[in-house]
Structures are given as C-alpha cells and as structure tokens.
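Q: Could you fold this chain for me?
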Amino acid sequence: MILAESNKYIVYNDYETVFLKKKSDCSEIIIGDFYGDPFGAFIDKEERFVVMYGCGVIVYYLPAYREYQYNMKTPQWDEFGRKNPVIWVENVIQADKNKIILKLEDGRIQTIKIKTDIHF
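A: Sure. Below is the predicted structure, expressed as structure tokens.
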C-alpha cells in the first residue's frame, strides 16, 4: 500500500516492512520495519527525510543508502518509542522544517526535533 509520495520518491509497505522507491530509476530499499503494519508515513516537503509511524516512529534521512536493520545505530535513521516504553502513534504532522508532532493512540501529543546536521 502506498503510504506517501513526493516528486522523487514513493513510500509503501508490504505488511510490516516499509520500502522507499526512487522514481528516477525504480530502485528500492527497505527503510523501516514495524510490529504490526505501519499506520502511515510522510515525506518532508524538501525531501530531506521520511517519517513512518505506528508502533513507534522511524525518521529515515535522505538520500537513502543504508537498508534499515533492527538494533543498528546509524546516522541514516532515528527511532522513537519503539522499545520500552513503546508508544502507538496514530498520526504525525510536520510542524515546521525541523519539528514533527505525534498524536498518540491515548490522545497525548509529543514533539520530536529532526536532525539538521546529518552527514553520511
């Protein structure tokens, strides 16, 4: 199912796995994996990152080069609320260039700052 689309990319899932497809050459890479299907995703307006959510949040920084893997620390992505304590995220909006707002399943709201100094 297509979760998000921009000028350069399509983000879609196949069950729990999330893929990023580059429109220019149709190449694909896994950018996330969720417990349960993801609830949604969006691509930053400037195509700097993708946000996927459901059981927690994954922020995957673009351009893509490293395939997502559990329990791996890399500047390519950040994870929030995916381990104790787990958060269930119903919706995410981009508040500004470097901030996203999470609407949690229990009605609470959380804010996350997006990294701006990513160097791969």
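A (continued): The chain is about 0% helix and 50% strand.
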